[in-house]
Fold this protein.
Amino acid sequence: MRPTFWATWMTLGVISLGLSCAEKSASEVERFFPESFDISIENTASLARVDQAVALDVTGIQTKYPGFNSDAFAVVAGDHELPSQAVDLNGDRQPDQIIFVADFTAQEEKTVTVRYASSGKIKREYPKRTQAELSHKVGGQFVDRKYEGGTFQNVSALRVPAEHTDHSLFIRYEGPGWESDKVGYRFYLDWRNATDIFGKKVPKMVLQNVGLDGFDSYHEMSDWGMDILKVGESLGIGSLGMWDGEKAVRVAQTDSITCTIAANGPVYSQIRTQYDGWEIGGKQYDLTSNLSITAGSRLTRHGIEISGNPENLCTGIVKHPDAKLLTKTGLENGWSYLATYGKQSLAEDNLGMAVLYRTPDLMEVQEDSQSHVVVLNPTGGKLTYYFLAAWEKEPGGIQNEAQFVQYLENVVAELNSPLKIRL
């Protein structure tokens, strides 16, 4: 119960090394990747971190090591290769970071070696521990805003058609989904724009099989788990909105929405959504939402960019009569949380949910008839927060309120003590 965050040789083709990292010795990795450099990583927290995501800036690496090739690299700690991937964060089709996961004991400093080939492409394969996907029907047609016929097809991007609305039967499980080996999420890619939770009883990737029947059978318990949250008109878990003085208003009325699977990798997955012309309070805003998750983590990071200098943005958690509200105001320049815990899942068992935000961003804690709300101040048109869900039926899941509170304390401690990385 620990948190995880956030850090060719053949010129005619790509070499794909099909063996998993566990099957590759350090000497075999060195044979394919002859160049290398070391980095020092220090865990500044007084607690162990498992599956800690480590992010290295590609520009920073190439400044010091000009020959570094983000198309052909591997990361090694001692005799073990660490699962890793290159990530394009801004959509320009150029890797911005390399991300890998590693374990750290409390206050440990360890040396990790990045090995690379200076030219060509060598694709590594690792066990898949994150996933992001978007699937809609093709081969049919809209009739009175319902999609008739056709079959589901996964796509890398979708500009939402004007005919689409809630329950159109056009998008599989009604929006994009993302998951780690701990938990899955989705948001409704329509006027509702609210985030929901898929509770998982297994660590394997499951979303590719959810909703294939075109219906909402995922509301019933299956071998992998189920949809465990009733969202309704609320903020669900971590949905974005704006506080109008009386209630949270979700991103409902827009000129257009384009959703992109920005990353779908073994240790990091990301969904980017562009909302043009979000109309609220007599004004319009252009909004970019980036939702991401890392291996071994329950947390979704929500990075937001918005035009027009809005007075506030807000997020929060659906109210439930059987859930206890938990709040903590953290360090002045640290992280705080708003959370709930209790028998609030659709399976009528224990579920913990939390939103974590930077303390300086907080304007006020509020509530309306549907949601517990934190009202936040975007700085320079940017805002970042996290949200998470912890279901008792996860493998090794959190079982009671005390365990959940301790877990949240660990989350905050890690966010307040970022890794120190030295190239």
User: Anything to note?
Assistant: Helices lie at 26-32, 58-64, 401-416. The chain has two domains: 15-126, 131-415.
